[in-house]
Structure formats: C-alpha cells, structure tokens
Target: 3-isopropylmalate dehydrogenase
Amino acid sequence: MEKRIVVLPGDGIGKEVTKGAVEVLQAVGERFGHQFHFTYGSIGGEAIDTYGTPLPDETIQHCKDSDAVLLGAVGGPKWDTQPPHLRPERGLLKIRKELNLYANLRPTSYYDSLAENSPLKKEYIENVDLLFVRELTGGLYFGKPSERVERDGKEAVVDTLYYQKSEMERVIKLAFELAEKRDQKVTSVDKANVLESSRMWREVADEISRQFPNVELEHMLVDNAAMQLVTNPKRFDVIVTENMFGDILSDEASVLTGSLGMSASASLSEDGPSLYEPIHGSAPDIAGQNIANPLAAILSAAMMLRLSFGMQEEAKAVETAVNQVLDAGYRTKDIGRTVNNYVSTSEMINEVKAMI
Ligand code: NAI
Ligand code: MG
Model:
C-alpha cells in the first residue's frame, strides 16, 4: 500500500521522538512492502518563529490532503509570555477543530517489565487495560464566550461549556463500538449532580446504550472516577467523557503503568485524516539531550497503522518490537528506575527498528 503521512514535529522533544516514529514506520514499510511518503509541516512555537502564527494555513491544507498526521508536541517557556493568539497551544486546538478530530483515544496498557516504575503496587496495576475516549472538539475548551468581563461593576471572567447533542452522540457511540470489541463495558464519566451538560450527556449515553445490548453501561461522577483510577484501575474497560474531564483523567491514567513517555494517542476525525501523537508535551527540561523516551511516539505510529491504514499485522509488529526491547532490558531514563545503564533516544529507536 501507498500512504501519505504528514509529520508535524513541533517543539522540544517533539522533534526527537517523531524522528523515531518515522524511522520505525520506514522499517515497517520495508518489511511489509508498503510505501510511506513523509512530508513535513510547521506547528507550534516553531511556526510562530518562522511564520508568525502557531498554525499556518499551509499546514492545515497539507494535513487535509494526507492519509494521516503524526504530531510531536508543541510549547515551551520561550512562548509562555506571548498573547493568547500567539501561543503554541492555539495551534493544537486549531488543528483539532480544522481536522474535526472529535475523539481522542488514549490506551493505558500494562507492561510487566515496567511494573516497578508505577506509583502503584503491582497487585493494583497488573493486567490493567483501559481505553480513554475523550471528546476533543467541544466543551469548555471551545465554548464562547471565553473572556474577561465586567458584571455588576465587578471584574469577572466567563468560560462556556457548550455541546451540541450530536457531538455527544458521535463520541459516545464510538466508545460503545470500541467496547464491543474489548471487554464490553463502558464507563461514562460526568458531573450530572451539578452540570446541565452532564445531565444531557447521561441521557445520550443511556439512549446509545440501547443500540448495544451486549455492552454494559455504568455512569460515574468525575470525582469518584479520579479516585477509582488509582484505587481500582482494573475495574475499567472503556471510559468515555467530555473534553476537560478527559484531559485530566487520561493524564492520571497514563502514569499508572509506567511513564508519560510510554503513552500514545489517536485523535480520530469524522471526515478526514486522523492525527496521532504521544500524550506528553515538549519537555523543555530534557529537550536536545537525546534522552527522551521515543516509545510513546512509536506506539502512536502503531495506532496509525491500525486505525487509519487497517494494518493490523504491521501495528502488532511495532507493539511486539517495543515489548521485546523492554523485555531485553533497554530503558530510557524515565522508565529506568531499576537499572543503572540508560540508553539514549536514538539507541532506543535503533533497538526497536532492529526488532522489526
Ligand atoms: P511534558 O509532558 O512536556 O513534561 C512533563 C514531565 O515529563 C517533564 O519532566 C518531562 O521531562 C517528562 N517527559 C515528558 N515526556 C517525556 C518523554 N518522552 N521521555 C522522558 N520524559 C518525558 O509537560 P509539561 O512540562 O507540563 O509541559 C511542557 C510544554 O509542553 C509546555 O509548553 C506545555 O504547554 C506543552 N505541552 C504540549 C502538549 C502537546 O503538544 N500535546 C501536551 C502537554 C504539554
Ligand atoms: Mg493534557
């Protein structure tokens, strides 16, 4: 097969880890006889410096014309004092909207060889396998108005949590479809005791669940979910929730079984190319040192193979290679609590490629 992949390395370690994902995809292409064509685009702080905007129109068009997008990370202290429209994160929010990336999938998988890296005891995390489905283009992060106001003569501020019912339906339906192929359980997380938006969310989840008689639905309040994730993560299979709750809870879940440097994600589009990225940021504290863990980016590439290209065997080959490299004892610093010798980013990339 032939596929066009747009790579948006972004800032900081984004550049270092996407290089690994590209090289691993090239190795997959060679082994399985596919042609992956890579082209590069600009986003984030690096785009601000070059084009004066965090997401040039050219990048958007380029992504729309591709089969899939691979993103690194954006941001860094250099741009933290910029006005809101010139912040790297704006580029990220904008690309989600432009590509209609309505569902962010973040799996948390257990690696036996990394059990000692977890903040939880092994008995709590052994065989944890959960999947976050986070709504990505609505809710509090996009609602208008979002501004400073003066009300009753007082300095004040307003953010808006806005959802169309259809936006809830499409992401909740996807969660059920995914659960059908997994352990047939959906946990819908909300704050229905307080928020009207959550009460509608709950109604929609109940409605959709009728189409999936084999899938069990439970509702859970977000504060309880935050607690259960660390006390009993094994109880979860698929967790579906709105944008901000999902942002917070999925970061919490990602460290359960190891490191931020291991957690991949897919952001699925309803009508165009999907986007794949590690969930971590640009890590300015370690950027440029060749010590970042490239596995989250590499595992994001595996999700691309599976979800955008339907290449099951190829995706499995990448995941197996990562497992084998870990089992053989190779560790970058972030997952190396129990070893003395760390490998660099580029050594880790080479080991995975060699396994493939
Ligand atoms: P971060 O994820 O960049 O880093 C948090 C901590 O984890 C740091 O100590 C970092 O060194 C470590 N870390 C992260 N990824 C790692 C990897 N692959 N290997 C080894 N260690 C790793 O989050 P932070 O520090 O809150 O944000 C830094 C910048 O990244 C900010 O400008 C933030 O806005 C941006 N950011 C961007 C995201 C994106 O592009 N999707 C997501 C999160 C943050
Ligand atoms: Mg986040």
